[in-house]
Design a protein that fits this description.
This protein has 15 helices and no strands. By secondary structure, the protein is an all-alpha fold. It has a single domain (about 10-190, about 215-405), classed as Up-down Bundle (Growth Hormone, Chain: A), CATH 1.20.1250. The longest helix has about 30 residues, at about 220-250. The chain is globular and about 60 Å long.
Length: about 425
């Protein structure tokens, strides 16, 4: 662990909530919009019900683009200026969506929001990596995720309430106000963590060299691909959640409640991971979770066929609860494993890892989401494939660790080979 370079490092009691708030802007920008998707589709006259999913997918697209911009930028100018710029750009995107006259213009604002929110989202990982590594980094990230998971728990209800008072455009006003609060807190309290002598030049040649170096680090690439596979069916779930709950299962105004219950399962999984990772290690927990997702989803596929594509609601909720706890175990650990050999390239490394995982997960997730037809075949099947593919990617990554003298199997502090 290292100290912040410009002033005294924040105490964990303040650092973790601040990190959680910065990370949670992505979840807020997605989940608070879900109850508004039908109204947005009606107001803009979209051709298909599934088209409203692009309100979610477009933000992910911007996120993938922005992550690659802000990572290298933070390596050049420092963590704080990069996060400041991202938050300002996010607020500008909110203004574009507020005043958008067409669906296409509103989607453009969402892409801009995604590019902007990538600043805090990606640079926060480098910020944490500047001060922590290995299991300690995984533990800090797990605690931050446990705090920020409360956002998707309440975000749909918050969005639904704001929509009922001021329409769906008022939700974007809320986003801008919260981003302004985050900007003020971060600017006033968080010291810079990247010293001047560790900053890298911002040039195509320098970035290309760094990307080329990262591409040759098989564990970093392998664990990033695994992260993309994990996230793909979750992207599909987010895009289709309103349709699943309100149209397929007819939950009506209770949709935010059920969505929030499932979001809590991520908090439970992250808290469990924070407690177990120091004992069992990141690789062992991740492999166990991926294998479990594949196995339980294969059973889920059979059950879905047994109920003609629409299992009883209580059974479907139970399935998602168990799967989401396992997905939560994977998120923090796979990110930490991918970043472990990239301490000297934390900014660019975080950007490449996040962009690659996003560009894997979003097209695959959109494919699953756009195939939604009122049944659960595609979603449950996607989780089964995701678990198996994640496990395969992890095994490939570990093969690189065993062959590399620079990244031995115990580099993350597991104390075992996996």
């Amino acid at each position: 662990m290292s100290q912040a370079v410009s002033g005294r490092a924040l105490r964990p009691a303040e650092f973790v909530p601040l990190v959680a708030l910065l990370m949670s802007l992505v979840a807020l920008a997605i989940d608070a919009m879900l109850p508004a998707l039908p109204a947005i589709g009606r107001d803009f006259g979209t051709a298909r019900a599934n088209d409203a999913q692009f309100v979610v997918m477009s933000l992910f697209l911007g996120l993938g683009i922005g992550q690659f911009i802000f990572g290298p930028l933070s390596d050049r100018v420092g963590r704080k200026p990069a996060i400041h710029a991202g938050l300002v750009l996010f607020m500008i995107g909110c203004l574009v969506s507020i005043f958008a006259p067409t669906f296409e213009a509103m989607i453009a604002g969402r892409i801009l929001q995604g590019i902007g929110v990538a600043g805090p989202r990606i640079v926060v990982i480098a910020l944490v990596r500047d001060q922590y590594e290995g299991r300690l980094m995984a533990r800090v990230m797990s605690f931050a995720i446990t705090v920020f998971i409360m956002v998707p728990t309440v975000a749909p209800a918050l969005g639904q309430g704001i929509q009922s008072l001021g329409g769906w455009r008022a939700i974007f006003v809320m986003f801008a106000l919260i981003a302004a609060i985050a900007l003020a807190w971060f600017a006033l309290r968080q010291p810079e963590t990247l010293p001047a002598d560790r900053r890298r030049p911002l040039s195509p040649r320098a970035i290309g060299s760094a990307v080329g170096e990262i591409a040759r680090i098989r564990p970093a690439i392998g664990y990033t691909i695994a992260t993309g596979f994990v996230f793909a069916p979750f992207v599909a779930y987010l895009g289709a959640a309103q349709q699943i709950f309100q149209e397929s299962y007819g939950t009506g105004a209770l949709f935010p409640l059920y969505f929030g219950v499932l979001a809590l399962s991520f908090g439970v999984g992250s808290l469990v991971n924070a407690r177990l990772v120091m004992k069992y290690g990141m690789r062992r927990l991740s492999k166990t979770a991926a294998a479990f997702i594949a196995a339980v989803s294969l059973v889920g596929v059979a059950g879905t066929f047994a109920f003609d594509g629409l299992p009883p609601f209580w059974l479907f909720m139970g399935y998602l609860l168990t799967v989401f706890v396992s997905v939560a175990l994977l998120f923090g650990n796979l990110n930490a494993l991918a970043m472990q050999p990239l301490g000297h390239l934390a900014g660019v490394g975080a950007a490449v890892m996040a962009s690659l995982s996003t560009f894997i997960s979003v097209p695959l997730g959109a494919l699953v989401g756009q195939s939604f037809d009122g049944t659960m075949y595609a979603l449950v099947g996607a989780f089964a494939v995701s678990g198996a593919a994640t496990l395969a990617a992890m095994r490939w990554a570990e093969g690189g660790e065993r062959k590399s003298a620079e990244s031995p199997p115990a580099a993350d502090g597991d104390g075992t080979g996996g």
